[in-house]
Amino acid sequence: MGSESNFLTRLNAASPAEFVALLDGTYEHSPWIAERAAAARPFASPAALKAALARVVREAAVDEQLGLIRAHPELAGKAAVAGELTAESTNEQHKAGLTACTPEEFARLQQLNADYNARFGWPFILAVRGPRGTGLTRAEIIATFERRLRAHPDLERAECLRQIHRIAEIRLNDKFGAEPALGRQLWDWAAELARHSEDPDWLTCTYATPAHTAVAEQLMAWMRECGFDEVGRDAVGNVVGVYHGTGDPSTEKRLLTGSHYDTVRRAGRFDGRLGIFVPMLAVRELHRAGRRLPFGLEVVGFSEEEGQRYPATFLASSALTGAFEPAWLDQADAEGIPLRDAMRAAGLPGRMGAITASKRDPSRYLGFVEVHIEQGPMLDSLDLPLGIVTSINGSRRYTGEITGLASHAGTTPMGQRRDAAAGVAELILFCEQRAAAVPDVVATVGMLEVPSGSINVIPGRCRFSLDLRATTDTVRDALDSDVRAKLDEICRRRGLSVTLQPTMAANAAPSDPAWQSRWEAAVAALGLPLHRLPSGAGHDAMKLHDLLPQAMLFVRGGNGGISHNPLETVTADDAELAVRAFESMLSSLRAA
C-alpha cells in the first residue's frame, strides 16, 4: 500500500503537465486522455483514477475513440517484427509468448490481422495479459481473435475500448506497484473448482451429481483452511461455514451471506461461486489478522439455484426459509431418478425431518447480503467494476400454443390465412414495444417452435414461451395483463385459438434500504462512482428476502457481461474490489 499511496499522492499534487507525464504509456500514444482526466483530481484511490480515465474515453467523440484504437499495434504484426512497439506493448506481447510463435501460429495471426482490418478498419485489440493479469496463451489469443472477427462493428468497437481500458488498468498496476492478490486467489479458486464437471469439455455441475459433491467437499476444505470455526454440509447439500464473533457463539447474532455453487450446463466459472469466494477471503483475512467481529459471519454455498436437474428451483435456499415442499422429493430427473434417491446417493438424508431442521430463525440474523456477477452488460458498458442492486425483478413465465390452420402456402390467399406463427410473431413485436416503453421492464419469447413445419405449408400450430419481468410486482402485473390482453386480441382478429399455461410466478424483492446504503458506502469508500441497477435475473437473495432484509452487490462481467456461458469472466482487479467492498461493509457494521 505504501508505494501505491505515494504514487497516488504524486499524481494528485502534480501540475497538469507532470500528471500527463506520470501517466505516459498508460494509453497508447494518447496523452489527451490524461490531460482531460487531470481536472477530476484529487483521486481517492487507484480505482477512482481508472474510472475517471475510462470516463474520458467513453465521453469522447467517435473519431477520437477510433484514433485511440488505431494507435495500437497489431498482435505479432509488422511493428512487432520490426521492433517498433512501445516498451509497454513489447513487454505485453512478450509475456503472452507472441514473440515466440511457431511459423504456423505466426501465419495464422497475420491472416487474422488482415481479415480483421479488412472487416473493421482498425487493429484487433486484446489485453493479452488477460483477466488474471498474468497472460493468455497463444491458443487463447487466436481463439478470441477468431470469435471476435464475427462480431458486429459497433459491438466490436466497444469491446476494443474495453480491452484498451483493461490494458491501461494492468499498466497502472505496474506503475502503482499494485497486485490484486485477493482477486487472483478468487480467480484461481474458480478455475480449480471448474475442474469438477459432468462434461469433460464444458463446465456443468448440476444438483447431487458426483461433480456437485466434489465441489462441496472442496469448498469445505478451503473454508477450514481459511479459518472458519464451523464447517459442514446440511440436509440439502448446502455448504455452511461459520466464523464466530466476539460474543457467545450460541447466542450472538450473525450476518448471513453466500451464493450457489451449482451451474447451468456449459456454464461460466463465476456465476454463484463468486459470492461464496468473496466472504471466504474476508474470513481468511480476518483469521490471519487474529480479528473477530462483534457478530458471527455465516457463509452458505447454496447447493441448488439453477433448476437444471429437477424442476424445484431454489430448493437450497427454500430449506433455509422453511419453504421446501415435501412433494419435491418425489420429482424425477430426465433419467427417472427421484430427488430423494439422488440426495441419498450424494450422502444426504433425503428426509423432510432433516430438511425442516435447516430452517433459520430470523431473530438470530442481522440480514442477508449476496455478491454476484452482474450477468448483464450495464456495468461493462459503463466501465464500472461494481454496482448496487436496488431490486430483484419479479417475473411471470408461461408456455403457450397458438392454433390456426395448416394450409398450402401457394394456394391460400393472404387474406384467408390462419397463420399460427404470424400470430406469435405479432405478439413478439408487441412484447418488445410494450416492455421498451417502461424503464427496467423486459419481456422475452425465448422458445419458438412450429411442430411438423414445412417450407410450403402455412403454420397451423406454433408453440412459444413468455418471460415477463419488472422491478415491482405492480409494474410486472400491468405488463402481464397487457400482454395477455394483446394475445387474446391477436387471436380473435386472426381467427386463431390459444392456450397459455403459467409455469412460474416470482415476486419482486426490493433491496432493504439500510443494507443497500451499506453497500453504497462500501463502494464509495473505494473511490468508485455509485451506480444503482435492478437485477433482471433471480438469485438466492430473492428467497431469503422472505425471511431477512437483503441487499446485493454486483460485480462487472467481461465479454459484454455474458453469463451462463463459457465466456463468462471477471478480472482479478474487479474481484479484488469486491472483496475490499465486502470488508468495508463488515467494518461499517463493526462501527455501528
UniProtKB/TrEMBL annotation:
Domain Peptidase M20 dimerisation: 393-491
UniProt GO MF annotations: 2-oxo-4-hydroxy-4-carboxy-5-ureidoimidazoline decarboxylase activity
Residues in Oxo-4-hydroxy-4-carboxy-5-ureidoimidazoline decarboxylase domain copies: 12-173
Domain of life from the UniProt record: Bacteria
UniProt cross-references to CDD domains, sorted A to Z: M20_bAS
Pfam family, one: Peptidase_M20
Cofactor needs: Mn(2+)
UniProt-listed Enzyme Commission number(s): 4.1.1.97
Binding partners and assembly: Homodimer.
Protein name: 2-oxo-4-hydroxy-4-carboxy-5-ureidoimidazoline decarboxylase
Naturally occurring in which organism (per UniProt): Pelomonas caseinilytica
Gene: uraD
